[in-house]
Amino acid sequence: MPRMSESGSSLGGRKPFTGAGGTPGGVGEFLVGLILFAIGVYLLFDRITVQSSFWTFGGRNSFGITLIPVLFGIALLFFNGGSKLGWVLVAGGLLVIVVGVIANLDIYFQRTTLWTALLIFGMPAAGLGLMARGLRPHRLKPAA
Questions:
Q1: Rounded to whole angstroms, how far apart are CA atoms 127 and 131?
Q2: What residues have CB less than 8 Å from 85, skipping those under 6 apart?
Q3: pLDDT tens, 14-53?
Q4: What is the pLDDT of residues 101-121, one digit of tens each?
Q5: Cβ–Cβ < 8 Å for 52, 105
Q6: Is 72 helix (H, G, I), strand (E, B) or coil?
Q7: Are the CB atoms for 36 and 125 separated by under 8 Å?
Q8: DSSP secondary structure code for residue 57 in this structure
Q9: CA distances, 144 to each of 19, 23, 26, 27, 120 (Å)
Q10: Which residues partner with 6 through β-bridges?
Q11: Cβ(134)–Cβ(28) under 8 Å?
Q12: Is 107 helix (H, G, I), strand (E, B) or coil?
């Protein structure tokens, strides 16, 4: 009868952890790459400014017209709380408003120095390279 360690049942039939991506070694490289990537993405997002612009959803300054279904739906719901048409008008109108707000956002990259731009774009690139290198199989050092 095989022992527990021979059958693999002590680990639920799974092989023990070998390294990043199931290959031997590379965990340290992968983690350092992940940290570099995360810092670079954070720095990139930190330099981006988001602001709203004029509401041009279906025409110039048409925001007010999108409120009409919402207001009509609210009136129907106050008259009859179980009105399916009222719920559809309120939910659909709010969805149109949210989509309109998101569609009218302007995104700008703030002025920055060349050094900062190289860091912002270089760190994620270096991180991706290290993560990919960490996933490749590494040669195990022979036991002394």
A1: 6
A2: 73, 76
A3: 666 566 666 667 788 889 999 999 999 999 999 999 888 7
A4: 888 888 999 999 999 999 999
A5: yes
A6: helix
A7: no
A8: S
A9: 21, 22, 21, 22, 43
A10: none
A11: yes
A12: strand
Token output for 62: 């048409």
**Nearest-10 Cα torsion for 16, 20, 23, 26:** -120
Model's pTM, two decimal places?
Answer: 0.60
Q: Give the C-alpha separation, 58 to 90, whole Å.
A: 19
Alpha-carbon Rg for the chain, nearest whole angstrom, is 28
Contact 30, 134 (CB under 8 A): yes
Contact, 120 vs 40, CB < 8 A?
A: yes
The CB-side HSE value for 113 (13 A sphere, CA atoms) comes to 3
Q: How far is CA 50 from CA 30, 35, 96, in A?
A: 32, 26, 20
Structure tokens at 12: 């639920």
- What is the separation, in whole angstroms, between the first and last Cα of the chain? 33
Q: Which residue has the tokens 């991180």?
A: 127
Helices 114-135 and 27-46: crossing angle, nearest 10°? Answer: 150
**What token pair was written down for 128?**
């991706």
Q: Using an 8 Å Cβ cutoff, are 46 and 97 in contact? A: no
